[in-house]
Amino acid sequence: MKKKIYGYELILDLDGCDKGVLTSRKKLQEYVDRLCKLINMEKYGKTLLPYFGENAAFTKGFSLVQLIETSSITGHFSDLWGRAYINIFSCRKFDHKLAKKFTLQFFKAKKAENRFLIR
């Protein structure tokens, strides 16, 4: 029996990111806008970009949620550690290598771990 594919997910854990990008609502909005255009994803609704977690230094920062017509793009950003944790999930194929390259460059990450899943 052949497995049916529901979707594709790129998981990125970035370290050594530019804190000026991680802590800027404007830059995070720019990231999601440019990424959606780059990988040809249609945004569904407005980007959610709350800043919270201020009770502990390691949880303080922005989170990003952008629904797309085929699923979602999410991100969580640590002010303290200069890290970004990003997931791009879509039930439509996308160029995950291009998305990874763009994301690493945008956040100026010094190190990155990534996984690409077919689900």
How does this structure look, described?
There is one protein chain. With 119 residues, the protein is of the alpha+beta class. The protein has one domain: S-adenosylmethionine decarboxylase (4-Layer Sandwich), CATH 3.60.90. Helix content is 25%, strand content 35%.
Characteristic terms for this protein:
single chain; 119 residues; alpha+beta; S-adenosylmethionine decarboxylase; 6-stranded antiparallel β-sheet; 6 strands
- Biggest sheet strand line-up: 2-3-4-5-1-6
Strand content: 35-45%
Rg over CA atoms: 14 Å
Q: What CATH architecture would you give?
A: 4-Layer Sandwich
Mean pLDDT: 96
Order of helices and strands: EHHEEEEHE
* CATH homology superfamily: S-adenosylmethionine decarboxylase
Largest sheet: 6 strands, antiparallel
Structural class: alpha+beta
Q: Can you count the beta strands?
A: 6
Distance between the termini: 16 Å
**Could you list the spans in which at least 5 consecutive residues all have pLDDT below 50?**
none
Helical content, roughly? 25-40%
Name of the top-level CATH class: Alpha Beta
Topology diagram in text:
Elements: E1 8-15, H1 19-22, H2 25-38, E2 51-52, E3 61-68, E4 71-78, E5 83-90, H3 96-107, E6 111-118
Antiparallel strand pairs: 1-5, 1-6, 2-3, 3-4, 4-5
Summarize the structure in short.
The chain starts with 7 loop residues before the first strand and ends with a strand. The longest helix is centred in the N-terminal third of the chain and has 14 residues, at 25-38.
